Amino acid sequence: MNRVFLTLLLIIPSLTLTTITAQTLGVDIYDLGDDNANNYSGNWEVTNQGSGFSDWTFDQATPNDGFAGRFIGSFSEALDVNNEAFALYANGGDNATSGAKAAFPKTMDEGDSFTVSIGINFRDGAKGFDLRDASNNTIINFNVGNDEYKLNGSTTLFNNTYDANTVITFTFMQNSDTISWTAVRSGGLTDSASGTLSDINSGTINNIRFYNVSAGTNNDGGNGERNLFFNSLAFNSLYTIAGNSAVTSSGDTTVPYLTIESGSTLTIPASSSVVVSGNLNNSGDLTLNSTSSAYASLIVNGVATGTATYNRYANVEGSGESGSGGNDLISFPLVPSDGITFDTFLGFGSPENSTKIPNNGSVYGFGPYENSTQNFVNFPLSSTESLIEGKGYRTATSGGTNLVFTGDVETNTVPITITTPIDGNQWNLIGNPFPSYISAMDFLNSNSEVLDPAATAIYGYNSATYSGTGETVGNFTIINELSNTDLNIAPGQGFFVAAMDTPNFSDTVNFTTNTRTTTGADDFIEGRTTTTNYRLKLNLIGASTYSTSFYFNSNSTLSLDAGYDAAVFGGIEEASTYPLYSHLVENNAGRAFAIQSLNENALNDVIIPLGVHSNQGEQLTFTIDSYNLPTGIEVYLEDNETNSSTLLNLSDYILTPSTTLNGTGRFFLRFSNTVLSTPQNSIANLNVFTNYTDKTINIQGELSSPTNARVYDIQGRLVVSQLLNVRNNKQSINVSKLSTGIYIVKLENGTLNEARKVILK
Fold this sequence. Notes:
The protein is mostly beta strands. The chain is 2% helix and 44% strand. Mean pLDDT is 87; it is low at 1-20, 319-324, 524-531, 571-576 and 675-681.
């Protein structure tokens, strides 16, 4: 499986975009509303002739006679647009009032700004504007009266210095719970002021009302100069993409909300992420792209509306080493809205997915893993099978390219059922349903109670192209508490987990939203491991190279440690698939482990059974791949058949077996703090484990003399006794009549005796 990454591709609509050069999310500002008096040809009526703002609503009152109204006129060059400005007049009688209201293109949310310019001469009466909420309650007021310029009744602007040609340009910027403002004075005098108004939450202000209230007739001939002039209204946004804009995110961007209006597009490139703290409202085109080595990531913490497109890379068909081909495991990275079926999915994209997924004339190379039959299946050409969120699928593409997924952005927990059928196996192919990385460790921790304790891990298919330093067995990269702890799950990545190893088991794995993260770079190709105390990786080189690893830390025991030990994928001892593995030192149930963790004290003296599968006459080399062990720790490979012990710290152990090797009992790995002479065959070099299916206790290894095997229950009562044959290196004790529980197996010959604890289920 090549590296699969998520990137939002920009899908450009059929209409011509007014913005040719892509803008950057969180940097460029988008024009949502614009209006000035020059749009009205000298006749200011109800219909708004600008863009974005609502139609005008006017109000007039003359309770004491006088005059009130509106017109298009000229104030000064600093305010006018082509010699025109909006004007409200009110004079000739006390409290004559003229007002004009317009709603903003949207409620002011974080990152939105509103700009307007005001022209003022006489400062009697009351004139200015109110920024108001949806119930027309005044939130911010600018008022000119009593020879003062006042903002919200307390802030005095420009020391109230008078000039008949004063033009003030206000800009209000909405923050999360405050409004930042600037006031720039021009015309006869030049000055500026700025500040912050507290306790004004995002989503509060949605309209403006301009007003002029007369102070009556002053008999000074200045009635005509008491008008309120204003012009150049503008509403802009950082996070509402409008105006047929083509926008690209850059790096890691966090926005308070995101709106994509119809005709606009957003692209999130590979290795870039966008986190939307609030809601995503998408009426345009939101597209995510991927390459074979990078993904984009999108997280929405609020509500998401509108569909997105996810172009997800899938590995090239075929097979081979070093990434030359193979299958891929993927999942639907968006909500397959309206029950998307496979035949619908085939029609996505241009070119369509149907041209990218190979087929043999009857089935496509795409389908789930059915653990009831223990096989992958392929969908027929005309399949109407529904694609299920959270389920994994095997696929590949001709040449290696992106498959197109279309659906909603998931913002809720996604449950997926995992099972262990009576006649099947425990392995379930599931997949990340989010267009973002998820933390592998968080996923495992939140679902550990429904996963097999012997395989509480993520098994990621790597198509034999794994090149990292973490654990890999065959075609699988293993993530657990010890291995690849920094390797998160890429968007739309499929992987295997093991349900409880109990027939007819069924439970639910949950992909929770709190596991989402923007951190990650690759799928299961580039492994990164965090060393936990001490580690050794043992390789077996034959026709191919296979490995198994051992960790020593204070959290582990010699028995099963859920989340630390990890069984090989499949849980079976197939020579062709798992030539090298280990068994547990204590409470051994015959399970093959790719990763075994032990207590760090075991470094002083522990013997670990190894399982080896190889063909007769095939040269084998045991070699240490990598390790970080304390000074003085020696690692021996013990071969019971040849009665040899090789210090792997200094040299490899090479042999060509004369018979087919199949299982445990011959080879053991010994960690010791002392230099060992060639050991005599010891009972310690026997592998004792239970087989739940056959109801047997198995003893594998070479015996130097006849040995008695006695089985005691937990109360110390002898329940089974059997003499082991010195000529057989694989022997079984029938315990089918014993009840489940803990038993002690004592192995005794003339000089040595040893006890092993086993568990019968």
